[in-house]
């Protein structure tokens, strides 16, 4: 699981150019949001002492923040006094999805029937792949995806499809402490190996996850583009490793590319734009 690197509140990065506007931020709201992000990133229960250390705040202040967030349902308190993300966070994820055109168009793809295999849609959220569309297959996979679920983008098929279109320096900025989260023994070991894999992904136009998220589960991913040729999401077709077969899953690789192209077309992307974007010339 994620290394317990301390990230004090005063050193936490702010998105975009928000650092320049830091004096306009409401401190209590900022602390609550950073606390939620810390718990979401840890993917495991955390106690008051560890949260206080990581956020660089007094334990009494963290206690007040956690109590408030628990009362609103954004945190859950465990019997041992540790905290987890609460169910109300899902309502925010659902609200985000409902206002995102790409998620609506993804769901519209399946109006005439469900896909044979599990197909997921995600967007980049920091260094994570945030799932905003899921079509779980009836075929047993050993892993159920849900809207609002987050995984390190460098482990997932859809995440690597999106990362492959970023400049290497931007990928490094997403993971200043390296690739600290591992879910299996597979997947890139460090940033250099990740960047090498992303270069291959960009060149061939699709990504491959071989059991980095769950043993026995593999996926092929591809980026989704909008009418401007900008990559706005990634899709992945997830299959049992046994389906790779002698053709190394070529059928499912093509399915991932076809779904990404169909969804991109629904967002207004033209074939010439898709080709240019995948070559990095748009």
Structural overview:
Helix 1 crosses helix 3 and helix 2 packs across helix 3. Helix content is 39%, strand content 17%. It folds into two domains: 78 residues, Winged helix-like DNA-binding domain superfamily/Winged helix DNA-binding domain (Arc Repressor Mutant, subunit A), CATH 1.10.10.10; 188 residues, GAF domain (Beta-Lactamase, 2-Layer Sandwich), CATH 3.30.450. The strands form two sheets. The chain has a six-stranded antiparallel sheet, with helices on both faces. Strands 1-2 form a two-stranded antiparallel ribbon. With 282 residues, it is of the alpha+beta class. The N terminus is likely disordered. It contains ten helices and eight strands. The radius of gyration is 20 Å and the shape is globular.
Give the amount of beta strand, in percent.
Answer: 15-25%
Our count of helices gives 10
Please identify which CATH superfamily of the largest domain we are dealing with: GAF domain
CATH topology description of the largest domain: Beta-Lactamase
Entry keywords:
alpha+beta, Arc Repressor Mutant, subunit A, Beta-Lactamase, 2 domains, 10 helices, 8 strands
Structure described in brief:
The protein is α+β, with helices and mostly antiparallel strands and 282 residues long. The protein has helices at 27-42, 48-55, 59-71, 88-98, 101-108, 157-163, 168-174, 191-204, 250-266, 271-279; strands at 75-77, 83-85, 118-125, 128-135, 150-152, 207-210, 217-225, 231-240.
């Amino acid at each position: 699981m994620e290394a317990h690197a301390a990230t004090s509140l005063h050193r936490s990065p702010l998105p975009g150019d928000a650092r320049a506007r830091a004096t306009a931020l409401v401190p209590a709201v900022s602390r609550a949001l950073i606390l939620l992000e810390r718990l979401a990133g840890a993917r495991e229960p955390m106690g008051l002492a560890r949260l206080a250390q990581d956020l660089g705040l007094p334990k009494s202040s963290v206690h007040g923040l956690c109590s408030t967030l628990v009362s609103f349902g954004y945190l859950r308190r465990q019997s041992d006094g540790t905290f987890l993300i609460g169910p109300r966070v899902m309502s925010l994820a659902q609200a985000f999805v409902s206002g995102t055109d790409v998620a609506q168009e993804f769901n519209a793809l399946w109006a005439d029937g469900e896909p044979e295999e599990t197909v997921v849609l995600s967007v980049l959220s920091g260094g994570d792949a945030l799932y905003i569309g899921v079509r779980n297959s009836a075929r047993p996979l050993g892993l159920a995806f849900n809207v609002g679920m987050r995984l390190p983008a460098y482990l997932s098929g859809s995440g690597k499809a999106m990362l492959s279109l970023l400049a290497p320096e931007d990928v490094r900025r997403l993971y200043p402490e390296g690739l600290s989260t591992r879910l299996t023994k597979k997947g890139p070991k460090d940033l250099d190996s990740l960047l090498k894999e992303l270069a291959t992904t960009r060149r061939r136009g699709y990504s491959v996850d071989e059991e980095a998220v769950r043993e026995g589960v593999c996926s092929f991913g591809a980026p989704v583009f909008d009418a401007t040729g900008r990559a706005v999401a990634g899709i992945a077709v997830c299959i049992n490793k046994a389906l790779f077969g002698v053709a190394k899953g070529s059928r499912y690789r093509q399915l991932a590319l076809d779904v990404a192209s169909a969804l991109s077309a629904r967002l207004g992307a033209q074939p010439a734009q898709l080709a240019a974007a995948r070559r990095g010339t748009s």
